[in-house]
Every structure is written in structure tokens, then in C-alpha cells.
Amino acid sequence: MLTLGIETSCDETAVALVEDGRLLGEKLATQVDMHALFGGVVPEIASREHLRVLPRLYKELLAETGKEPGEIDTVAVARGPGLLGSLLVGVSFAKGLSLAIGARLIGVNHLWAHLLAPGLTGDLCFPALGLLVSGGHTHIYRIQSSIEFELLGRTLDDAAGEAFDKVAKLMNFPYPGGRYIDDLGQESTPDKKLFPRPYIDHPSLDFSFSGLKTAVALHVATRPDLVFETMADPEAVANLAEDKRADIAKICASFNWSVADTLRIKVERALDSMEGVKSVIVAGGVAANSLVRKTMAGVAKKHGLELTLPDLALCTDNGSMIAYAGWQLAKAGCSHGLELEAIPRGQV
Ligand code: KG4
Ligand code: ZN
After folding, report:
1. Could you say which ligand is closest to the alpha carbon of residue 40?
2. Helix 210-221 crosses helix 160-170 at what angle (to 10 degrees)?
3. Element (H, E) at 256
4. pTM of this prediction?
5. Ligand 1: does its nearest atom lie under 6 Å from the Cβ of 81?
6. From ligand 2's centre to the CA of 9, what distance in Å?
7. Cβ distance 290 to 263 under 8 Å?
8. Which of 14, 90, 156, 302: CA 20 to 30 A from 198?
9. CATH number of the 2-118+314-331 domain
């Protein structure tokens, strides 16, 4: 079964072809440099870019994989969550294409797709605990199978990735700043008393990262010398002067530890309340974080569970994961009609 995946939920335009669960090819265009000028994603620019780029990527994908439109059985598209205007570009393209070539149409939950992405490179082991940590979401799921997800906990305000990006912005790192915090943090050791681990005393599996960001803001306010004057370019971060470097690295390491350890506490709490779980799947952009990966490896080992992490290239938004999730849904007999809607937030 040949499945086309279309991803336009935020600032990455991507298409991919998956044949019976195997990736044939992907084309991806990132808008990150464009939005970096504004320090965050500008929704209108994102939508216009998707509209401009998507048809070209689709044609290039077919040419590179040697496939004809008529060979596509299923058109899978990220229907949400995400930016409404951006989602509408992908959903409209998918509808038109499925109608033109007579293919099945399937709207995919972008978050489920993130969690299933490691299935492209290895076997997934269910039931699983799924931790989705991205720029827009921090969710804990019980995943019974590739198409059965139960949401157990979520962030009440900022997502983990958002916290990384906002803290990075406080120090004027380039956008998106998560990976700079990760890289610099590895040069230091965390001061575990410096920042709180937010919401861990609350018995639920929910998260709240906005207080942590405020704690970092208050700390950074006492050290204005550590803030880059202008939104620094990656070279500026790489060439950071020695006298500032150690102090900035300490803040990064401490903040990173607070996030990773908060995730650990809630994941362990979830595991304690779940029966029959065989693996932990961690996905989303923040799953690229070295300390989060190491921490979750420790959790899995302690609980005798398999740990599944996507390859780094599959952590951030891509079309392959949409095609793969769409294929799973198609195999289970799911499909949507032309009334398929984009769902920017809430239950997708
Ligand atoms: O999953 P994703 O591409 O976007 C959403 O679907 O929301 O994740 C992007 C997020 C950004 O917040 C980015 O800063 C963060 O993932 N990120 C990281 C790292 N690499 C990407 N955060 C921490 N450490 C990293 N190494
Ligand atoms: Zn995503």
C-alpha cells in the first residue's frame, strides 16, 4: 500500500511516501530562517510559504521516487493540532489530490504521528507509555496500539519546547533555542537548587512550565551581562567569550535538568499507575535533547521497559511520520470524507 504523507502544521512543509510501512522518500522545506527574523513563528508567513512550496515538493517527491500519482492508495495529512492557516493548506491540498487521483483520504493526529515515528526504523512495542514533548505540546499517553491513544496528562500552560524557546529568547539565543541550551548545558553541571521543578507536588500527570520560565527570567534579570545584545547568530553562540561561557552554560544545564527531571517524575508516576506497559516511547522536538534522552533511558532501565526514541531527524516535524501514521490508520480500515476538517487545538 502506497501512502503519501503531508505535513504543514507549523513551519515545516513536508511530503513523504511510505510503502507498506517502509519509507521510500521525503521532501522537506523548513521556514525556520524566515521566522527566526521575528523570534518566533509568524502564522501568516507560515501559511503563505506552505502554499508556495507544497506543490513543488510533491512533484519532486514523485520524480525522485519514480512513482505516478495514480499509484498512491492513501493521502494522509496532518489535520491538527497546529496553526489553523497552515493546516488548511495541507488539508485542502490533500482533499484536492485524493479527489483527483481517487485515493483514500486520512486526517492524521500530528501528535500521534510523532509518537509512532520510531516505527519507521524499528519495532514498536505495545502497550506503551508515550511522552510527547514538542514545541507546542507536552502530553503523556497510554498507547494501546498504533491507533489507540489515551491522554493521561498534559501541560496546563507552556509546552516543554516552548519553555526551552522562551528561556533561549530571554538570553537572546537564536530561534528556536532548544538545541543551544542543550549544547551549552553539556559544558556544565546543573545547580539543582537554582530553578524549581514545576508542578511536581501536584498529584496529577499534568505539567506547568510557565513558572520555570519566570524563575529563569528573574535569575537572568540579576545577570544582564549574560544576555546577548541582539538575537545572536549561531556563530556568536559558538564563539561565546570564555568569561561568560561558564555562567551561561550553568544556567542552561540547570534549566535543562529541571525540565528533564520534571518529565522523569511525571513519567515514573504514570508508569506506577499503569499495568502491562512494555515500553516507553519519547517523541517530539524535545526528544532530541541529550539530557531528556539520557534521563528516559534511566527510567526505562529502572522499570525494565524497552525505550523507543526516534532518530534525531525524525524528532522534529516531518512528512514521513504522517505517512507512517496514515498507513497504520488505513490498514485498520479508517478513512475520511471530503468534509475532513483541520483541528488547530483540542481533541483531534
Ligand atoms: O516537534 P517540534 O518540531 O515542533 C512541534 O511540533 O511543536 O519541536 C520543536 C521544538 C522547539 O521548541 C525546539 O526548541 C525544541 O523542539 N528542540 C529542542 C532540541 N531540539 C529541538 N529542545 C531541547 N533540546 C534540543 N536538543
Ligand atoms: Zn510536531
Report:
1. 1
2. 10
3. helix 242-273
4. 0.93
5. no
6. 8
7. no
8. 302
9. 3.30.420.40
For ligand 1, atom 21, which residue shows the shortest CA distance?
A: 285
Q: Is residue 114 classed as helix, strand or coil in its secondary structure?
A: helix
Is residue 209 lining ligand 1, measured as CB closer than 6 Å? no
Is the distance from CB of 108 to CB of 79 less than 8 angstroms?
yes
Domain with CATH 3.30.420.40 in the chain: 2-118+314-331, 126-309
Query: Does residue 288 have its Cβ closer than 6 Å to ligand 1?
Result: yes
Superfamily for domain range 126-309: ATPase, nucleotide binding domain (3.30.420.40)
Q: Provide the annotated binding site for substrate.
A: 132-136, 165, 178, 182, 289
What does each of the 348 residues of the chain score in pLDDT, given as a tens digit? Answer: 999 999 999 999 999 999 999 999 999 999 999 998 888 899 999 999 999 999 999 999 999 999 999 999 999 999 999 999 999 999 999 999 999 999 999 999 999 999 999 999 999 999 999 999 998 899 999 999 999 999 999 999 999 999 999 999 998 898 889 999 999 999 999 999 999 999 999 999 999 999 999 999 999 999 888 887 777 788 888 888 888 899 999 999 999 999 999 999 999 999 999 999 999 999 999 999 999 999 999 999 999 999 999 998 888 899 999 999 999 999 999 999 999 999 999 888
* Parallel, antiparallel or unpaired: strands 148-154 and 138-145: antiparallel
Distance CA 58, CA 223 (A): 49
